[in-house]
Amino acid sequence: MSLATTLLSSLLALTLCYVAILLFGPRAAPGSRLARAHACATGGLCDLGLDALSRLCGPRARRFADAALLFCCDRPNPGVQLLYLGLVTGGYLVFLLQGVPMLPGPYASARHLWLGPAAVLTSLALFFLVCFSDPGTVTAANVHAHAAAYAPDGLLYGPKRCPSMRLPAPARSKFCRVSNRRVARFDHYCVWMGNAVGENNYRFFLAFLGAHVGLCGYGAGLLGALLAGELVQRGVLEVGVEAAGGATVPLRSQPLALLQWLLFAYAPLLMLAVFLACTTLLVLAFLAYHLSLAARNVTTNEAFKRQELREFLTERALAAAAASGQPPPAPPAPGRLAWLWRRAQAPALSAEALAEIERQCVNTYDRGLLANFGEVFFPRSQRRKVGRGVKDD
Is 190 a catalytic residue? Predict the structure, then answer.
């Protein structure tokens, strides 16, 4: 197995593990290994890094890091948007200067001369659409339509007024302190967009992620095809090099030497291809996570709230079991694959107690796969009878 194949396989395996943690972690039993891995992946690593910085460099470095995070992530910051634009335009400029002269090639036809710009322009158009679209701001004029879209579930949402806006707070809405407005079906604030993501622009956000998975994957594949074509056209693969034993072997059998040659001859294109490949996997993981949320009609905000609720109910059930003197259930017999799975999933609670916790955390907004995605692409508050203040059940 070549070095490139090993590195790519390792990166793919790590990405799949990260996707699995994002998808199944929120529904894992509190206290389980999967739940701890999810907590670590969604914030624990950042906290661990800040604690390590404080111990190594002192409290002043920790305060500086906290201030930097506050500046970058907890307030509108056009610098992050400019960084995104710089990455896109800089990468395309590298392709324009060094990749376009290779077209057409043995493995890349001339149609990529217009496919590449079309992919970049589509991604940029979706970026600006999400940046400047209304996420679903709740105002006095539309508060009744948003309130009619979703009824309070009595679990995460109940009747309340927004003290900041002095308006009734529709279910599933949240006041975004970064953008300073209440957003219907609030999902999260995206620092890359400089905008909140909510009911009205969540569909555009999913399209943005999908377009960038396509753009980065297409770019990585195209650059790989261009570099492979150059190797073939220039006969580099058959050049003889001296191996460790002194024998002369073709360069194709020496992956490290081949990589060194590519870095020497085409360093910008090679680094851009590696960057795009890694970005493809990361954005794909993020897209898969959001698609799983949309399939269950859960927002990012609600996913974290339900996880906190599960942890609270589990701690209360464990305390009640300990107070009653009830022993924890015995684990299954070792040596079975099912035992390993249940050991990673279940805390020291009976099956009845775990079922009761899940019953109390039921998602009443889940209407089935097709209806859930329908609410993403056709927001309920914008439907005609909901817009008149009639509940759409």
Answer: yes
